[in-house]
Amino acid sequence: MKKNDQKDALELKGIEFDVVITVIPKELYGLDILEQINKGRPTPLSFSSLYPALNRLIRKGYIDWRWGEVTDGTGGARRKYYKATGLGQKAAKQWMDYYSQQQLKLKPIFGGTRN
Fold it and tell me: Bridge partners of 28?
């Protein structure tokens, strides 16, 4: 990984990384993203943290969004659906590669990988 690529990937903060990897497999709206992220998360993420992270990721080009259709299930409101872009997928992979390398440095200290 080139030095510049590491910098780009490391611009993803922990919450941003969680959001990007959550919307890589399929597009989701805010509540679905929050529920997926909070599964097994030691400190639950709140809406007040999620939406600023979504806006930062849109500005960086890591995710994109579209308006959903009005349905009876939404009470007449339109949902905003989010999906990772190719750039977001690349940044998430670089972030994972970098932290995998860091984890290897800790293996001698902790005797294995940390969960």
Answer: 82
9-55 residue pLDDT tens: 567 788 999 999 999 999 999 999 999 999 988 999 999 999 999 99
What's the CA gap between 51 and 42, in Å, rounded? 20
Architecture of the domain defined by 3-106: Orthogonal Bundle (1.10)
Residues 20 and 92 sit within 8 Å (Cβ to Cβ) = yes
Residue 112 sits at the vertex; the CA angle it makes with 99 and 103, to the nearest 5 degrees, is: 10
Burial class (CB in 10 A: 0-12, 13-18, 19+), 41: exposed
Map residue 16 onto helix, strand or coil: helix
Per-residue pLDDT reduced to its tens digit, 43-91: 999 999 999 999 999 999 999 999 998 877 777 788 999 999 999 999 9
Cα–Cα distance between 44 and 27 in angstroms, integer?
21
